[in-house]
Request: fold
Amino acid sequence: MNEISGTTRLVGLIGWPVEHSLSPRMQNAAFAALGIDWAYVPLATPPERLADAVRGVAALGFAGANVTAPYKVAVAALCETDAPSVNTLVVREGRLEGWTTDAAILEGLHTDRAVVIGDGGSATAFLQALPHARRFSRRSEWPPVVDGADVVVNATPVRDEVLVELRGGQTLVDLPYPETATAQAARRAGAKVVSGLEVLLAQGAASFELWTGLPAPLLAMREAIGA
Reply:
């Protein structure tokens, strides 16, 4: 746990770009709800400065950071971690630990027959959590086959194309926000849809707890992003 004192503790968001992210709004609402002197700031990081930015998290006294596209896999090589994809950095006694909370949304879902679509850092994190899952991407096996799957994770940035057609009894975990055409088609077909905002809330709450050691104020976080 990072000590909470009279000095503002900082956490940030490393990515390129970061302007679209709702994480600053969500995390700052969480800090305000608990009355702690913390702040979450966007850290737009061009590719050639990634290593400097990661080192700077510890050097500048940050409590940690989130990592978003396109850097989750690259950052795993720049910190202490066993994870192949990192979306959360935690500074402890000057050491930079790497964690992944991307797949926190899976808790409580039936995932015996899982499919993951995508080949980026988020897809990698879900595959770590679901080692038995079948993976599809345009760089390898395509198109996706989801017959018989209980949960399908859309970890691509594709918004306007219906990537797969689901049926009632199946669950789509749709990472992008706002909602994709794939999610809209799944809902019309009677499938359960877990939205990108729900995914963001789950991973953000897990990151919050890693940084602060406090239970995340889920209601305030949910209201901040309209989930």
